[in-house]
TrEMBL record:
Keyword Transcription regulation attributed: no
Pfam family, one: HD
Record's protein name: HD domain-containing protein
Organism of provenance: Chryseobacterium panacisoli
PANTHER family documented for this protein: HD_PDEASE DOMAIN-CONTAINING PROTEIN, SUPERFAMILY HYDROLASE, PUTATIVE (AFU_ORTHOLOGUE AFUA_1G03035)-RELATED
InterPro entries linked to this entry: HD/PDEase_dom, HD_domain
Domain of life: Bacteria
Keywords noted in UniProt: Plasmid
Length: 214
């Protein structure tokens, strides 16, 4: 008999068939694996961690006209079909509703350890070599410029400004990616983020050298 986790994997794979490559099943799989690794170092509800990691991007608002209510609805309906206890469902929805970078100014006062773990995992997948690849893939998906010397990063954007931003892909490093290392919640997450952060700094140095034909 298949477990709830197995059923969730199958459900997510089906729902995200054909999704933009930076937010597809493979992104989910990496975040799930990262979350499991981090969870091993924390006192947490591992089922909540796994379910939250698997469902966290089931309906990413940026691909649904900014609607943040779709993912929780889809997740609740699925988990209820799986006869998951209401207490667990509420914990999973709490993670899904609070994980996003753009909602950091509305972060809960007392985040659960499960939220901290899955948030770290999601943010780790946004940096390093994979993060660079995902960022340029999404920039191409939106037809954004890779870089423009005269367009400076917009730091400290509000949630609405961030959602509407169509800045260059290189600016996105300064507006988000390079900020993530210092936003990690767990000790394991901090250690994992360090190497990836440094990789991005080296990449940017090389990018500017090649752009300027130095």
């Amino acid at each position: 008999m298949k477990s709830t986790i197995d059923n969730t994997i199958a459900f997510v794979k089906e729902k995200l068939e054909g999704a933009e490559a930076g937010h597809d099943w493979f992104h989910i799989e990496r975040v799930w694996k990262l979350a499991v690794q981090i969870a091993e170092t924390e006192d947490c509800d591992k089922e909540v961690v796994e379910l939250s990691a698997l469902l966290h991007d089931i309906a990413d608002p940026k691909f649904h006209n900014g609607d943040e209510t779709i993912a929780p609805k889809i997740s609740r309906a699925f988990l209820e079909e799986q006869n998951v206890p209401e207490e667990t469902i509420l914990k999973v929805l709490f993670v899904i509703e609070n994980i996003s970078f753009k909602n950091r100014d509305q972060a809960p006062v007392n985040p659960s350890i499960e939220l901290k773990i899955v948030q770290d995992a999601d943010r780790i997948d946004a940096i390093g070599a994979i993060g660079i690849a995902r960022t340029f893939n999404f920039g191409g998906f939106k037809n954004n410029l890779m870089y423009h010397p005269d367009r400076k990063p917009k730091l400290g954007m509000s949630k609405e400004e961030y959602k509407k931003s169509n800045g260059t892909t290189i600016n996105h490093f300064y507006e988000k990616l390079l900020l993530l290392k210092d936003m990690m919640n767990t000790e394991k997450g901090k250690k994992m983020a360090e190497e990836r952060h440094n990789y991005m700094l080296n990449f940017l140095d090389q990018f500017y050298k090649e752009w300027n034909v130095d």
